Amino acid sequence: MVLAERLFECFKDKDFFTLHDAYQENMDKTHETVRARIYDNLNIKFERVAKGVYKTIDSEETCVVIEGDGRDLSMIQDESIDCILTDHPWLDPKSNRGGTRKFAEYDCFKYTQKDFDEKARVLKPGCFLVEILPAENENNYEYLYQIKQFAKQAGFLYYSKVPWKKGTFVSNTGRKAKNTQDVMFFFKRKSQKYAL
Q1: In 3D, which of 94, 83, 149, 163 has the Cα closest to residue 116?
Q2: Within 10 A of 172 (CB to CB), how many other CB atoms are there?
Q3: Which spans in the chain are helix H?
């Protein structure tokens, strides 16, 4: 059992715990290591009550927001997430330009099969993956089809696609609409059990 889980199990039935309590329960670890595991899991497994005082958070009600590389889900347990909602910085150089303006001034990428395999690993069966993607146009329709194929190979069913009209904010230069993105919904299949 990893240290964060051990800390959670140790204090889940208590109203609160202190750093000193956490150190005492994990004397085989350095104080810095114990404190780091608590800080790494703030608003995931633990909540800060006061300086040096924490409480556990019921994991059934937790929302995890990954700021940074959301492609790295290694810290998330298998089949532990109820829904994934993501808006990746999609690489579409032609659509991300307009005249002399560049709309994407940040690192962009294209999804791979591995990205969808990881999402399928952490998502519970019967739950949804929601992808916010660019509106389809001549520059990206093959990539959007490829995303559906990646999802299918990972065990997802394509559920639906709806347009998201973003008011007057211009976010891409696709021919269809300059202020629209698509929201794609995928459903993770439940495992099939066959009777013999």
Answers
A1: 149
A2: 24
A3: 3-11, 19-25, 31-40, 113-122, 141-153
Residue-wise pLDDT for 128-174, tens only, equals 999 998 888 888 899 999 999 999 999 999 999 998 887 765 555 54
pLDDT in tens, 175-189: 455 677 889 999 998
Q: Which long-range contacts (CB under 8 A, 24 or more apart) does 136-142 make?
A: 136/174, 136/176, 136/182, 137/95, 137/174, 137/175, 137/176, 138/175, 139/92, 139/94, 139/95, 139/174, 140/90, 140/92, 140/95, 140/174
**HSE of 164 in the Cβ direction (CA atoms, 13 Å)?**
18
| Rounded CA separation 2/74 (Å) | 13
Whether the model clears a pTM of 0.70, i.e. scores above it, the answer is: no
User: How confident is the model over 9-33, as pLDDT tens digits?
Assistant: 889 888 889 999 999 988 888 999 9
